[in-house]
Amino acid sequence: MIIIVGEEPYTKTFYVHSNILRVRSNYFKTFLSTNWIRREDDKIRFSKPNIEPEVFAIILEYIYGGKIEFQEDLDPSIIFDCIKAADELGILEFLFYSQDYLLNNKITWLKENLVLIYRDSFGLDSMRKLQEFSVDRIKKYPHLLFDSEDFNMISEQALIAVIKDDKLEMEEIEIWKKLLKWGIIEELANKYKMSMKKKLPNRGAAISTIMSSDHAAIIASWIDHYDIFVGGYNPDVWYNTLWPQYKRNDRSFIFSFTQGITINDNHAYALNCWRSSGPSFGKFDLLMQNSNLRFKHKTYVPNVMPVDDKSLKIDDYEIFEVVLKETIKNGEV
């Protein structure tokens, strides 16, 4: 049997015994029992471009010899690639031993490549040991994930799994900021129950139940054709006052999907409560009133609003109350 691994120009050809591969690998056992086999000159030919030659050579040595011996100076990334290849090829003993080897001998490398480890091990039972290691580290030190340059490499499902964990040592406001950055606000439904608390008078009807970055282009097209999508977060309550009344808060923020997030440094003017308007942040930095969205940069620094000193017409907007979802465990809420 001829196996060609790697991608051009870095390919290598291996001559192997199909009967041995059939016994040692669940992947090849299945492949060699199908009608997909391609033969040339009476030899089975098989290509595996997603496995590098160096990685396949290590695995092949185990298949034939039954022993796993990693050289001390072998790059840990090669070992990790071997683990992923062993998972695909269904070589379980190699898979389990290699994970233990990294955890016992290459812990520094694992810590330095935490995002990569979590991304590639997420959802794979066969790589549970590495996944548990990465999850434990992220729960204790969430900045290792959220502040990483590779943060956007994480899949939506993997990120939600982290946020759902009650042991995540991270403030709620920080979670919101990171999710806004990542652009998956809609997936907060997995951690939070989002409900419409109150429909304000003369403000129009809600058009959906969850905001998302995917909706940004649609909603932005309604705002006088300005390609913007903005919002704000109030961790407190809104007062229904007759006259404008400022409210102190050190955790509120306003955001723009194109410009980012800013938290008010002048906490005394974080919020503006007034029964004649919708939500208002700062000294009217962001104000919703009479079907208009008003921008006036005064309080929130730096200014992340895409326009300044303008009033734009809107058709609809939404207000959500964000509350922790109650769970019952061992008879306790």
UniProtKB/TrEMBL annotation:
Residue span, BTB domain: 1-72
Protein name (record): 1850_t:CDS:1
GO cellular component, one term: cytoplasm
Xref: PANTHER family: BTB/POZ DOMAIN-CONTAINING PROTEIN 9, BTB_POZ DOMAIN-CONTAINING PROTEIN 9
Signal peptide residue numbers: none
